Every structure is written in structure tokens, then in C-alpha cells.
């Protein structure tokens, strides 16, 4: 089996149109201009993707049924599952943080995986229908906002932070969620969006909106507006406390930088570095890089397009990982609720920082990378 010969594909990152040769097993076609992967072909890709996606759905369902983590301190015991964790956040007047955590870690991953199963089953049974385009669009829309793997890393960071305070036991749901994250990541590795788009559009390559003066100007203006919003939100995200620890009735608020310093003083150097990079370095770097890219296309810069597209892809990939600190706060708040003895509550900076992450992700989505390869004056 091979891919169709002579398939016409327009590169998402630079707009160059290429005619692809037939691909054999494990071969991929890349854009000759910018190096973006246009298509990847693997034998039995549809069957493998379906099996992995279905397994991930089953494991996600199992992770909701049992205890996730248990916190023990001085004879006091607090166990929780994923749903009760969200309920604790809502009970502490942070319903918005509970909704964001639930959407990013359970609901959107479930929608994404069910959509992938639907598409792969339709391809296996050769059942084509125009409504599959809506399913495909739903999958692509949910893809960047599904953060199960980031949540899992946040759990591991949280466990390292609190093992010195109390005993932590992991329940069956933790192992199920771990397996869900692995199988979901594997399913998305095998899922080829380009081939699926070609199939759901009736074996035609979907046409992208051409890059003209209106499209370019709109992209530039929206990106500037979102970057300005993210910069303003970043100030309270760092000044205000991201969480407050109550020990025997005494409250100790902690900012992002304060948390990093505390971890460093405790000797948790790797965790302190991870939080510092994810919560401080990455958001600032993302804002600066997107501002530089937006300024470069606005001024009509033509040099170093290969370098600029690499920076853009880095920003696209790494930006969502800043949510680690938000998930760490959500886990600690849900787990450590022992009344006046020891309790943790979310601070106002948690939502502000969450907004920074989301707004910068939207800025990266809004930025049209095709402008990097064209003098803006040529589309005005």
C-alpha cells in the first residue's frame, strides 16, 4: 500500500504548493521550502490509531472510578478521585479553575479521542459522509487544548513537593490515568492529520484561505492585541500569590517566584528549575519571540525565514507546558485539605497565569506563519 501519487498539498507554514510522490511504509514528505512535514505514511496506521485511541478512552473512563491519590498526615487521611478534586476546587470558590482543569485533563481529551476513533472507524469501513468534516474540525480544534500529559507531569511535580510533608499513596485511578496518557500520546503520534483531511474532504486536499492584504493585516493586528493582553496579565500573575498555605491557622501566601525559591532552599533543584522554566522563562520568551516575529512580518523582513519558522514552531510546541504550575496548584489544593492543621488554597495569580498561557496560545494560533516567507508589501 502507498499514498496517492501526485497529491497536491499546500504547506501550512509557508503556503508553498507541492505535488507529492507515492510514499512507502515509514516515509514522509516534507516541504522543500520550510521543512514542514506534509504527510507521513505507515502500514496499518488507521487500525493502530483506532486501537490506541479506543484503549485510551477505556483507561480514561477507568481513571474516573477509583481513588486517585491519598494524603496522610498525623493520623488524618484524605483520599480523592478526579471528580472530587474538581469539586474541592469549586468549593474553594475557584469554579473557573475547576472548569479549566476538568476541560483540559478529562473532557477535551475524551472528545478528541472519541473523534479520532470515529474518523478511524469510518476510514476502516470506507464509510464516507460529509459530516465527518465536522468531526475532523472538532478533533483539530480540541488538539492543542488537550493537556493530559502536562497534567500528569504536574501530578509528579506535586508528589515530589509534598512527600517531605506527609505520606502519599497512589490509587488505581492514578495508574489508569498514567496508561491513558501513554496510549493517548501514542495514538496522536500515529494520527496523521493531513491524510485524514484528504480523506474526509472526499479525497481532495482542502483549500486554505489565500494570504492577501486583508488576511495579513488581520493576523498582525490580532497578534499584537493578544500579546499586549498577555503582557498585562503577566504582571498580576507574578505579583499576586498563586496559592496560600494555612498551617495551624497561620496563612503563608506564595508567589510563583517564591515557590521556586522555596523549592531551591528545600534542595529540590530539578523541580525548582522545571517550575522556573515553565512559569517564568517560557511565557516571557514566548511573548518576546511572537512580538519579534510579528514585527518582522509587519516590516516586510525577508532574511532568515528558516530561523524564524523554527522559532515559531518552538513557540507553538512549548507554550502549553506553562500550565504545569497551574495544575500543580490545582492538585495541591484538591489533595491537602486537613482543616486548620494543613490546608492549601488557590490564589488570584492562578487564574491570571492561566489566562497568560491561553492568550499566548491564541496569539500563536492567530499568527499566520505564511507571512514569514513573503514580503508583506507583496500582499498589500
Provide a descriptive summary of the structure in words:
With 380 residues, the chain is of the alpha+beta class. It folds into three domains: 1-43, no CATH class; 44-206; 213-380, Butyryl-CoA Dehydrogenase, subunit A, domain 3, CATH 1.20.140. Helices cover 59% and strands 12% of the residues. The protein is built from 13 helices and ten strands. It has helices spanning 45-63, 82-91, 95-124, 132-142, 148-162, 172-190, 193-200, 213-239, 256-265, 269-298, 305-318, 324-335, 348-366; strands at residues 7-10, 17-20, 27-30, 37-41, 69-73, 76-80, 167-170, 243-247, 250-254, 342-346. The chain has a three-stranded antiparallel sheet with strand order 6-5-7. A three-stranded antiparallel sheet has the order 9-8-10. Strands 1-2 form a two-stranded antiparallel sheet. Helix 9 packs antiparallel against helix 10 (269-298). The longest helix has 30 residues, at 95-124. The two termini are 45 Å apart. The model is unreliable at 376-380 (pLDDT under 50).
Amino acid at each position: 500500500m502507498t499514498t496517492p501519487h501526485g497529491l497536491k498539498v499546500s504547506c501550512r507554514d509557508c503556503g508553498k504548493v507541492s505535488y507529492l510522490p507515492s510514499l512507502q511504509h515509514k516515509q514522509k514528505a516534507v516541504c522543500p521550502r520550510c521543512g514542514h512535514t506534509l504527510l507521513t505514511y505507515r502500514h496499518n496506521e488507521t487500525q493502530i490509531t483506532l486501537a490506541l485511541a479506543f484503549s485510551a478512552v477505556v483507561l480514561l473512563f477507568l481513571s474516573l472510578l477509583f481513588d486517585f491519590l491519598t494524603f496522610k498526615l498525623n493520623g488524618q487521611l484524605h483520599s480523592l478521585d478526579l471528580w472530587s478534586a474538581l469539586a474541592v476546587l469549586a468549593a474553594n470558590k475557584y469554579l473557573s479553575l475547576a472548569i479549566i482543569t476538568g476541560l483540559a485533563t478529562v473532557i477535551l481529551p475524551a472528545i478528541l479521542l472519541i473523534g479520532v476513533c470515529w474518523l478511524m472507524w469510518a476510514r476502516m469501513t470506507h464509510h464516507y459522509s460529509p459530516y465527518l468534516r465536522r468531526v475532523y474540525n472538532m478533533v483539530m480544534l480540541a488538539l492543542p487544548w488537550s493537556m493530559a500529559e502536562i497534567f500528569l507531569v504536574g501530578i509528579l511535580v506535586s508528589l515530589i513537593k509534598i512527600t517531605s510533608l506527609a505520606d502519599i499513596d497512589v490509587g488505581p485511578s492514578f495508574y489508569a490515568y498514567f496508561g491513558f496518557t501513554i496510549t493517548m500520546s501514542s495514538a496522536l503520534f500515529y494520527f496523521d492529520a493531513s491524510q485524514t483531511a484528504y480523506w474526509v474532504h472526499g479525497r481532495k486536499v482542502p483549500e486554505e484561505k489565500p494570504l492577501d492584504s486583508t488576511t495579513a493585516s488581520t493576523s498582525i493586528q490580532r497578534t499584537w492585541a493578544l500579546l499586549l493582553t498577555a503582557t498585562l496579565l503577566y504582571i498580576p500573575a507574578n505579583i499576586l500569590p498563586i496559592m496560600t498555605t494555612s498551617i495551624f491557622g497561620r496563612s503563608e501566601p506564595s508567589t510563583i517566584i517564591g515557590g521556586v525559591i522555596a523549592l531551591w532552599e528545600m534542595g529540590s533543584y530539578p523541580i525548582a528549575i522545571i517550575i522556573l522554566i515553565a512559569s517564568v522563562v517560557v511565557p516571557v520568551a514566548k511573548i518576546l519571540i511572537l512580538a519579534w516575529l510579528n514585527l518582522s512580518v509587519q516590516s516586510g523582513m525577508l532574511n532568515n525565514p528558516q530561523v524564524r519558522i523554527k522559532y515559531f514552531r518552538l513557540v507553538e510546541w512549548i507554550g502549553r507546558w506553562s500550565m504545569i504550575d497551574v495544575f500543580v496548584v490545582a492538585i495541591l489544593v484538591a489533595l491537602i485539605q486537613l482543616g486548620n492543621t494543613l490546608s492549601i488554597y488557590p490564589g488570584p495569580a492562578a487564574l491570571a497565569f492561566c489566562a497568560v498561557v491561553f492568550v499566548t496560545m491564541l496569539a500563536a494560533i492567530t499568527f499566520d506563519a505564511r507571512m514569514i516567507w513573503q514580503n508583506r508589501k507583496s500582499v498589500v
